[in-house]
Amino acid sequence: MDPVPATEAAPGPPPVPRPVRLAAAVGLLAALLPFCWLLTAGTFELLAPQPRAADFHEAQARSWLEGRWDLDPGVLGIEAFEIDGREQTYFGIVPTLLRVPVVAITDRLDGRLTQLSMVGAVCVLAGAATSLGWSVRWAVRGDRAVDRRDLVVAGATTGVVVAGSVVLYLAGRAWVYHEALLWGSAWALVSLAALVRHLAGGSLPALGVAGAAAVAALHSRASVGAGALVALGLVGGAELVALGAARWRTRPWRLAGGGRQVVALLAVTGTVAVGSYAAVNLARFGEPFRLPLEAQTYVRISEERQEVLDANDGSLFGPQFVPTTALQYLRPDGVALGRTYPFIGFRDGVDVVGDVAFDTLDPTASLPSSTPLLALGSVAGLGVLAVAWRRGHPLRCLALPAVGSAASALGVLTIGYVAHRYTTDVLPFLLVTTLPAVHVAIERAGRHGRRTVVVATVAIAALAAWGVAANGALGLLYQRQEAPDVSEALRGALVSDQVSVAEAVPGATAPRVRWVEELPRDVTAGDLVALDDCRGVYWGEGDRWRGVERTEEAGGWTLHVPWPEGAQPGELWPLLGSGDADGANALVAEVREDEVRIGYVWDDPDGRHVDLGRWVPRRARSTVTAVFDPVTVEIRVQVDDRLAFEGYRFHPRDGVAPGRSLAGGPVQTLTPDVEVQPRDSDLCERLRSSG
User: Domains plus CATH for the chain?
Assistant: First the structure.
């Protein structure tokens, strides 16, 4: 597909017209509906507390306000880096900066801001895509009047970016990992869009925006920020060469501007980026660029990660991972179809190429299978940009931004950790290359018959719809089944929905259930197992059974706890206890003003042991959801929807009872009494009926 000659126009694209902005906003609002539905698990409560890894940035902001970099002990969990006896984080500082004004006023929103932050990042991403799309449109069609096609493309662009790409998948979990990916890609695309405007019109303010946004991307997620900086570096290097090479003074990578001012501004940008990154690393880890993995809590406690690091010369990055990651992210059969809701899922396993030790192989789809419109559009767009460069077409101003953004895309392939979320780093590259193909195709549509145009339009719409369906389904499965610590309530909701859809939709099937008298010791991944007497329903994940529905007999408890007033430091109040004077254990709570922390007390031949979790907010009367499972030996406690304690070290005893403990020692009797909310086995009975 050849670019068409652009209409002559004044240097540089004009501001995005109001009708185009409105059309883009309509597309964004439409896409935010499924995004927010998935992000909030259907509640649309954007300030709801998140159970895990959602309060790191609030804790960092509070540390800054207290004049330090280290975070309070326990906040980071396995992600902590212990440096000189203090816990540090490696997460970027931009999401933290956004929280400082809120944290300075109140701590009531700690752990509640991640969802809003992710929505904000999505809006910035959509705005950058709109700006980039308008610059591409100008390069192809010049100053022609805005028509219906422009409005449709603007709305479709924001809709596809938010709801038809990996962005929708990220809504499946509101935590810092997905937040970092969204902000990194958003700022990177802002930088690339501003760089294109500069290359098209010679605007120094646009170049300044590009530099500032690249630094913000670097401090949100370094891998994708590096791509934006590479693009700026390519422009700066080309300008520097052009100053001393007569044959390059035509500057084929830009349409206007250039010269010493550009080189100087880009030099300042590079200095600020490298200097600020080094300064943050020095403050945290005592060295400017290296991430000291040996100091991470997870590395210290995980033999598996230690073995992976030993096998890869102490690093999780390297070319040895590329054959496997390239195959997984680019294969055409990256998803699996089925008759059980949501009908689209991850394919089984990741095929490792060669004798390579990977840290993690998460369920992962591929770009062609989950986002086919952008994947195919990117291939076509690369051809368009190659022709534009050769022919001197105005679209050539996208060439260096495309090459720079490719650096982030290629960087994903070198990580010894396969995860669908990492394809977010490729998103800026996909957009920079797809949009030229889209606008050239629209401009050339008049050369073809109506039937051809209709068929092409239907095909594009079908690919976009598939992207929405695939990423929505994958995000739902990640949220309610595949993520590392899915709650029993969410797993149960998914299975319940699967049964309901099977009852309502012809051809759909309920999940297949294996009925057993007792839970098998051997776990089969993906198996749904129900106990004959409906005490519990379990799902197989890796080497463990995860609860889908548990009654009290299977270790599932819902407690309403009126916390004691005037509790003294060190007093432990029992929530659940089992055993007798010869050997007992208990779930306990230590209470202080507005906070509580959950612990586990147990006896063994070595004596009595106490393991306490982190402090979490509490109400005067809290709902405590607890798993105290004697078969899976799982312990998991949520206080008012906040994850407060978890582990796999329950020592089964007879006779679990609420509000008391026979462990003795520091454990008190909780007064007034804990109220038990009885659990039913409705889901189990529905599964029996559906089978």
Answer: 18-54+111-475 (no CATH), 552-682 (2.60.120)
